[in-house]
Design goal:
single chain, about 120 residues, EC 1.11.1.7, 5 helices, mainly alpha
Length: about 120
């Protein structure tokens, strides 16, 4: 039951992001189909990895939401929280208790296996 609730929360958050993202129209806007030609399995890879990890640890769903929050609050939603070097958001004191980096790394590794040198970290996040 907890797993279903967590999946519903994650799905609701994703829908909110999509709906809110569509409020702004730009000529150079992001495209959901951007990787359909170069990495057609991208969404499936991400979905399967998230599902696999959530089956083992349902507390990762809120951890991922918190990770997104911390990324977006600092400099905008740019996946800069994933950068791991001295002085980065990830090494900041406020980020020490963040979780979910291992899942993102696992997703990126799988994407890199199937679509080498094609997808950056941001879409996997």
């Amino acid at each position: 039951m907890k797993m279903k609730m967590m999946m519903m929360v994650v799905a609701l958050m994703m829908v909110t992001v999509v709906v809110r993202g569509n409020e702004y129209e730009y000529d150079d806007s992001l495209s959901f189909s951007y990787y359909h030609g170069s990495c057609p399995e991208l969404e499936r890879i991400i979905h399967n990895k998230v599902h696999e990890w959530l089956k083992n640890d349902s507390t990762l769903a809120p951890a991922l939401m918190r990770l997104h929050f911390h990324d977006c609050v600092v400099r905008g939603c740019d996946a800069s929280i994933l950068l791991n070097h001295l002085g980065s958001e990830r090494s900041a004191a406020a980020s020490k208790s963040l979780r979910g980096f291992e899942l993102i790394d696992d997703i990126k590794a799988e994407v890199e296996k199937r679509c080498p040198k094609t997808v950056s970290c941001a879409p996997t996040f």
